[in-house]
Amino acid sequence: EAGVAQSPRYKIIEKRQSVAFWCNPISGHATLYWYQQILGQGPKLLIQFQNNGVVDDSQLPKDRFSAERLKGVDSTLKIQPAKLEDSAVYLCASTVLAGVNEQFFGPGTRLTVL
Amino acid sequence: GENVEQHPSTLSVQEGDSAVIKCTYSDSASNYFPWYKQELGKRPQLIIDIRSNVGEKKDQRIAVTLNKTAKHFSLHITETQPEDSAVYFCAASKNDYKLSFGAGTTVTVRA
Question: Does B44 touch chain A (CB under 8 A)?
Answer without folding.
Answer: yes
